């Protein structure tokens, strides 16, 4: 037999085993019981010492016994592990059953010890008058005298000793504070497992017992005493005390329990205690050492498995059996420098079994196994705490171990998340905080793994941001009493009381849309008739999906870089993708204080997806959509300076008087803004570029797409500005200036931003009225067109401003956003330089943003000017004629001036312009939309239609926008409060007013509302009688159309007859009817659209009119259908096909046929089809309305009709015939037509009371005789 000393074993350069060396290791086991400055040799560590030298090696054993201490032994089976060739970290893996007495290899020491314990148990059973107590018997051990001292552990002198039988369920905390005596606790359970008791071991000499105890094993404890844990002078919990030199412990089998006599404990001091209580002496009653387990205990479990992968040794993350992972960071016996090796089989006792939802970034990086239960997917994690114990069942047969260095500087770098490891150690982080810190850093690394953010800055930001995640009190290990005695209700290592750990996730931008739209609770399908205002037959409406996000309601944090792309739009982006971003500005503030290229979080937003798919001529469906984020500027929070860290900006603190200022002067000193904690900006000292000019932005044209050679396209935006010179500090203002020098006087210029030069990315930072700084390399970069050379002498044209094509490679723009490095400028008046008359005229006539007149919808749709006009933004005291929109018509029925209007969008759709010739842009519509976001993606579908309603009323106006060469507008959806600027008004063929957007027009979204939940001020809507809509107020129109009043009015009337009602579903792709939930053309991915309309005759007592109802809500209100029946009726119509009710005579037949032709109704219709299970049909609903005599309040407008150019006077006045009665001519006039936009059912009692009040008012106002 070859013997190997510890010294020779430590000298080996590589790992080895007993099989390879065929040697037996000899030595002496010791357990360190004193304070040791070496962190590798802390108290409680098991070492194997050399028999002759002072060499020792750390031992990892599957189990241990205190009787092995200081006994020379020989070890026949072992593994020597040395991870690195030059590493000082080495350890020995040993099985207890392979430890033999030195010189006697016949029987192992553990077998001898087990035999000795069996003999001791048999001898103890034979002792008379010894009763054993089970743990459940300790519940009755109530009254025991105690003396109060300053110690937290209170003992009773001269106690009757206790003999207890119990099963060890947990080895609890080892309290190894330097300078204090060591102590540890074990937890015992009785038969049935519903009662527990805690035993305390106090003293350095008893530390050798800690490794002896094995969980789930039965032991006999003899000669114990009771004690109490005192908190603030009050005994809080009873415990058992293992007394040094007195108490004994023996392991036993569960089968030996029957040999022991059990009985109730008798306290011989009870009579003495009762006598002292009678004499009035205060007595302290000890709490019983045994308690019942709490019914609301935390999820604790035991698990045995093989380590299949070492994921992160610093945090103790291991994979077990390819099924779950474990985190041993809070396990008190886990040693970072002595990790578990792959292939080691372990048994984990008293661990928290938690589930982490799938989709976590850190779990994806760790490649954690996924457990599926139906549709639910999660990652199971076993989390260790102060109560956990890990027992080694089997060591691996190989010697492989991941290598690492042990220098102090690299200990924190053992993990990929080294800074977080150090922070968790320092702050005593619990598992919830630890995993959240790792989740955030993993998400950031995943989002910016392609270096969109510099690596050094990203790591620094990660450390700062994760450092703000704080643990909840009490911190891990600070409340020993809670961890030992109240662990069933709370744990300082695992704060959650649920079985699932909810992480605040930070998804990648590419996953945001899928994640939110898959959440049914947050997905909102917008109705095709959002707002239910106006016709739905003529346009193809846009199908929308919306998903709401609120950081306070959902455990998701949206973070990304906010910047502009070459198409001139804002984006939220990271390395995985990008989403267009619409930022709603602050009220009365036109600017967007956004630092481009910086890192932002969004607290709340609305995710919108517009379906732009279409059907090709071949029949295939083209899938196309536009997804983007809409949020308020208040919900954007800047968390780190990334792109703007080395940028400069300008500061103009003094107000600029545009009538006198002719230039700017820069201060010598540079203003420094104090750096925030979240900003870590590295200023480039070599950046010496300063502005040559200061610009005042006048006008911004939206980007327009142009075609270049070889089928290439370019987006350009023209910006008008006033250029002011910057005077150097060494130039005196008293010097004479050369008037011919254009650089020394203000001048109008035009800057061209282009996608080709990538200068459009600066466009979101501009707005009319803002100030910018411009630096150019050369002085003569502005191109001047001299028109005088090409014009006759007698012809004068306005001077074309100098143009500059902005190129970021040669030019620099400076904003006024606060930066760490700012240049201060002062407006001055240069001596000898005056403003040109053209510049004065520009400031006198140009209306900058914030000074524009913004009208209501009602003000711009009236053909005749109203007496009063209410401005939404410019509220003046006393409006004059200048505040009214111009009513002067110019050619082709257009009005003279452009207007700005604010309203709520209630409808959006596409219109096809058949008159416009197909251009090159149309042939590349899909490519242009995907590259630049221009158009709608479908050739020929090049015009958008918006129906805009007044903010507090029901008046609407139709606005048309050509998008074939401009970017698709974002945020213009039903419910959006939008201000349209520079609209041109036009009279339609029906006499109503519509608006058209010009290339210089733009729309600004202010707010997103719910159009169906808004409060409409119906009291301000004027009342009318139907008789007033007749001939007396009709006027002959010009150019083939009549001038009907387009405003909404209010009437109270009853339904006299219902002429026609139609309910049906149509295919949103091809427009055909749907029956049996199938499209006739078999469109697979088409949207089903419910269509409903009705025609009725109403009477208000003065006259009759024909009322048109369009939309399911209006038709169901007319038929008085309850909400609980609406879905059933729609389902029945979807199954059986179109359902139509018709009741007309010869006079109405032509009108109904025209209505059905407009609707495209060519399929079969059913009239008596049952719509509900109770047998309700459409004729029954119509007859019920006519027989009950319901009174409605209807909000409607006159229906304008197109007349032929050669229409006669009778046709214009809608006179059918003229007859003679009594010698007087009588004209038979057609009934007027009205379009109902909303209606409410009137309460008869309320109506009668209103009439009575009116009658009383008339009677009281009669003149007295």
TrEMBL record:
Keywords: Chromosome, DNA-binding, Nucleus, Telomere. One of its GO terms (molecular function) is single-stranded DNA binding. GO terms for cellular component: CST complex. GO terms for biological process: positive regulation of DNA replication; telomere maintenance via telomere lengthening. It is found in: Chromosome, Telomere; Nucleus. It holds the Pfam family CTC1. InterPro entries: CTC1, CTC1-like. Belongs to the CTC1 family. This is CST complex subunit CTC1.
């Amino acid at each position: 037999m070859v013997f190997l000393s510890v010294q020779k074993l430590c000298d080996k350069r590589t790992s080895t085993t007993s099989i390879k060396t065929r040697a037996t290791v000899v030595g002496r086991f010791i357990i360190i019981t004193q304070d040791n400055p070496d962190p590798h040799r802390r108290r409680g560590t098991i070492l194997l010492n050399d028999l002759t030298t002072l060499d020792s090696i750390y031992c990892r054993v599957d189990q241990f016994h205190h009787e092995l201490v200081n006994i020379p032994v020989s070890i026949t089976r072992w593994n020597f592990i040395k991870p690195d060739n030059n590493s000082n970290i080495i350890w020995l893996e040993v099985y207890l059953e392979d430890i033999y007495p030195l010189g006697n290899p016949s029987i192992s020491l553990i077998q001898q010890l087990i035999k000795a314990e069996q003999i001791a148990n048999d001898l103890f059973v034979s002792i008379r008058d010894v009763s054993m107590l089970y743990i459940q018997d300790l519940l009755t051990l109530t009254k025991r005298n105690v003396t109060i001292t300053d110690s937290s552990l209170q003992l009773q002198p001269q106690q009757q000793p206790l003999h207890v039988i119990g099963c060890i369920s947990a080895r609890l905390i080892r309290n190894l504070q330097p300078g204090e005596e060591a102590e540890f606790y074990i937890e015992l359970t009785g038969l049935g497992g519903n009662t527990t008791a805690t035993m305390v071991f106090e003293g350095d000499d008893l530390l050798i017992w800690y490794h002896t105890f094995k969980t789930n094993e039965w032991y006999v404890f003899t000669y114990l005493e009771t004690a109490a844990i005192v908190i603030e002078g009050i005994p809080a919990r009873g415990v058992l005390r293992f007394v040094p030199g007195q108490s004994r412990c023996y392991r036993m089998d569960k089968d030996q329990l029957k040999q022991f006599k059990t009985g109730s404990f008798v306290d011989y001091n009870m009579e003495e205690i009762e006598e002292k209580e009678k004499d009035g002496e205060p007595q302290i009653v000890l709490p019983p050492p045994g308690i019942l387990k709490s019914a609301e205990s935390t999820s604790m479990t035991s698990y045995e498995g093989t380590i299949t992968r070492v994921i992160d040794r610093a945090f103790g993350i291991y994979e077990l059996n390819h099924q779950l992972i474990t985190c041993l960071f809070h396990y008190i016996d886990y040693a970072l420098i002595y990790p578990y090796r792959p292939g080691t089989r372990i048994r984990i006792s008293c661990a928290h079994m938690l589930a982490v939802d799938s989709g976590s970034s850190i779990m994806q990086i760790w490649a954690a196994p996924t457990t599926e239960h139906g549709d639910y997917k999660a990652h199971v994690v076993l989390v260790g705490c102060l109560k956990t114990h890990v027992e080694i069942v089997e060591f691996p047969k190989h010697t492989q171990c991941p290598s690492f260095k042990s220098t102090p500087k690299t200990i924190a770098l053992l993990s990929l998340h080294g800074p977080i490891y150090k922070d968790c150690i320092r702050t005593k982080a619990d598992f919830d905080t630890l995993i959240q810190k790792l989740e955030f850093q993993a998400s950031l690394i995943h989002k910016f793994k392609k270096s969109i953010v510099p690596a050094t800055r990203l790591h620094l930001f990660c450390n700062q941001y994760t450092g703000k995640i704080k643990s909840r009190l009490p911190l891990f290990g600070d409340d020993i009493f809670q961890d030992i005695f109240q662990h069933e209700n709370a744990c300082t290592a695992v704060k959650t009381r649920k079985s699932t750990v909810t992480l605040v996730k930070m998804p990648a931008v590419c996953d945001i849309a899928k994640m939110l739209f898959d959440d049914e609770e947050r997905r909102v399908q917008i109705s095709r008739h959002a707002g239910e205002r106006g016709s739905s037959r003529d346009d193809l409406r846009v199908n929308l999906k919306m998903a709401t996000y609120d950081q306070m309601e959902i455990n998701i944090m949206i973070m990304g870089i906010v910047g502009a792309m070459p198409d001139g739009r804002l984006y939220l982006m990271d390395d995985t993708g990008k989403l267009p971003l619409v930022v709603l500005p602050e009220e009365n503030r036109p600017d967007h204080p956004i630092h481009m290229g910086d890192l932002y979080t969004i607290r709340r937003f609305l995710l919108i997806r517009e379906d732009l798919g279409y059907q090709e001529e071949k029949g295939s469906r083209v899938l196309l959509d536009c997804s983007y984020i809409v949020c308020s500027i208040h919900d954007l929070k800047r968390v780190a300076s990334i792109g703007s860290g080395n940028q400069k900006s300008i500061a103009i603190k003094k107000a600029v008087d545009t009538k006198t200022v002719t230039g700017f002067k820069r201060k010598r000193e540079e203003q420094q803004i104090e750096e925030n904690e979240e900003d870590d900006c590295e200023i480039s000292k070599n950046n010496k570029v300063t502005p040559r000019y200061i610009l005042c932005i006048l006008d911004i044209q939206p980007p327009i797409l142009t075609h270049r050679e070889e089928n290439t396209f370019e987006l350009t935006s023209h910006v008008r500005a006033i250029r002011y010179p910057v005077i150097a500090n060494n130039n005196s203002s008293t010097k004479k200036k050369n008037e011919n020098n254009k650089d020394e006087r203000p001048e109008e210029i035009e800057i061209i931003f282009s996608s080709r030069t990538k200068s459009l990315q600066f466009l979101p930072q501009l707005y009319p009225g803002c100030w910018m700084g411009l630096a150019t390399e050369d002085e003569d970069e502005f191109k001047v067109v001299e028109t005088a050379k090409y014009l006759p002498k007698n012809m004068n044209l306005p001077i074309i401003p100098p143009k500059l094509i902005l190129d970021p490679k040669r030019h620099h723009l400076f904003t006024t956003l606060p930066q760490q490095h700012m240049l201060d400028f002062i407006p001055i008046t240069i001596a000898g330089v005056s403003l040109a008359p053209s510049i004065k005229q520009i400031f006198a006539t140009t209306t900058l943003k914030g000074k524009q007149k913004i009208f209501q919808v009602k003000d711009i749709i009236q053909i005749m000017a109203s007496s009063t006009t209410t401005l939404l933004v410019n509220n003046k005291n006393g409006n004059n004629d200048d505040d009214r929109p111009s009513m002067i018509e110019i050619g082709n029925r257009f009005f003279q001036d452009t207007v700005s209007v604010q309203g709520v969008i209630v409808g959006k759709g596409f219109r096809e312009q058949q008159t416009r010739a197909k251009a090159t842009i149309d042939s590349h519509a899909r490519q242009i939309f995907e590259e630049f976001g221009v158009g709608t993606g479908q050739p020929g579908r090049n015009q958008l239609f918006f129906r805009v309603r007044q903010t507090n009323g029901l008046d609407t106006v139709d606005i048309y926008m050509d998008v074939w060469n401009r970017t698709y507008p974002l945020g213009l959806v039903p419910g959006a409060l939008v201000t349209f600027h520079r609209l041109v008004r036009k009279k339609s063929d029906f006499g109503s007013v519509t608006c058209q957007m010009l290339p210089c027009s733009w729309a600004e979204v202010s707010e997103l509302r719910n159009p169906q939940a808004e409060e409409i001020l119906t009291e301000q809507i004027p009342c009318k009688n139907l008789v007033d809509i007749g001939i007396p107020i009709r006027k002959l129109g010009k150019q083939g159309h009549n001038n009907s009043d387009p405003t909404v009015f209010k009437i109270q009337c009853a339904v006299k007859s219902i002429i026609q009602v139609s309910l049906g579903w149509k295919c949103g792709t091809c427009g055909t009817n749907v029956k049996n939930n199938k499209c006739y053309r078999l469109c697979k991915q088409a949207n089903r659209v419910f269509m409903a309309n009705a025609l009725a005759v109403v009477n208000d007592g003065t006259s009759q009119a024909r009322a048109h109802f369009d939309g399911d809500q209006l038709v169901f209100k007319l038929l008085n259908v309850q909400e609980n029946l609406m879905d059933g009726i729609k389902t029945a119509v979807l199954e059986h096909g179109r359902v139509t009710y018709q009741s007309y005579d010869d006079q109405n037949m032509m009108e109904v046929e025209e209505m059905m032709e407009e609707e495209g109704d060519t399929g079969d219709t059913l009239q008596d089809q049952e719509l509900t299970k109770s047998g309700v049909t459409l004729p029954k609903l119509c007859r019920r309305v006519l027989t009950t005599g319901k009174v409605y309040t209807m909000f409607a407008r006159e229906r304008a009709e197109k007349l032929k150019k050669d229409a006669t006077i009778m046709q214009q006045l809608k006179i059918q015939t003229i007859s003679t009665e009594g010698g007087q001519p009588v004209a038979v006039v057609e009934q007027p037509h009205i379009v109902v936009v909303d209606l409410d059912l009137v309460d008869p009692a309320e109506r009668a009371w209103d009439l009575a009040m009116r009658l009383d008012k008339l009677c009281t106002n009669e003149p007295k005789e």
